[in-house]
Amino acid sequence: MSSSPPRLLVVDGTALAFRAFFAIIGLTDDQGRPSGALYGFITSLLRVIKSESADLVVIAWDRGEPTFRHLLCEDYKATRERMDEDLAVQLPWMREAVNLLGFSQLDRVGFEADDILASLAVQGSAAGYEVRLCASDKDLAQVVSENVRLCPPPKRNDPIAELGPLEVEEKFGVPPTQMAEWQALVGDSSDNVQGVPGVGPKKATILLKKYGSLAQVLERGPQEEKGKLRENLEANIATATLALELVTLKTDMDLGELASFAPREYQQESLLSFCSDHSFNSLRERFVGSNEKDGSSGSAGAAVGSSSDNPFGDPGDRDYRLVDSPELLEQLRDGLSQSGGFAIDTETTGLDPLRCRLVGIS
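Below the sequence we write its predicted structure tokens.
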């Protein structure tokens, strides 16, 4: 009976940070510092790592600096808004948390996190690893294969879905090997990459199936198509060619030996101190008792394995009722008046009474 191949998990740290920021807005720690994105990032990361049970783990980051793509096109990502300051201040803490957990993290001058993910995907697959890419960017569909799966970060209680070659083709209409050409025709508004005007996802799929490649679309399309499509193809050959350079991910970056990405031991005492410093009391409890109490080192996998699937803790067997109408409020009033006693707790965005905001009463 053959054993399963080793697994490499690569996480888009920047994308996970943004996702966490917009999922938990307004949370602050005891010192009044924003902490929602940090908390969401850590708990989401732990959940993904636990679910994937990988032998090697890497978190890839954008550097927030110009890349080689900006040298090709000065308007690349020019329409993106500046990062919110509340998120920017939490990014260093996220990196600190990854380091304390014992996982490897990478960034490279002149490149994006997606290039790191794509390079590790190709190199890991070639080395015999099953590769899982925890990312939501459709660009990474370019490197999906039988050994490489794209796994968008799930919502809190949803299972982690995997996109293989079949799922990519079902979603975009083309196989992974043609994703870059498909993107070059369609363009990418989020990155300010211009495609061919009038060519949307469906038309791009039709053109690639008809002509076989972007090169053939640009060579034969201006002669064989009709009307406005013909004009647009003829007038935007250079635009589509540049777009292909911009959207194509690098797969040959030198990122070191894969074996160096095995999870390291972490210092439990430092991790507990980190949680306390950021007022993550419930998160701190997940690491208490996972190793010896004297601050000795332990594997990150041990702590991850002891955590709940729900990053906010297991509510257990409880009867929760949401009061969101006048009628339900009256029912609550009547029920409380007949009870032998009750307690009220305020739900706020933090623990500092001078800074936090009321969000509910329980």
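The radius of gyration is 24 Å.
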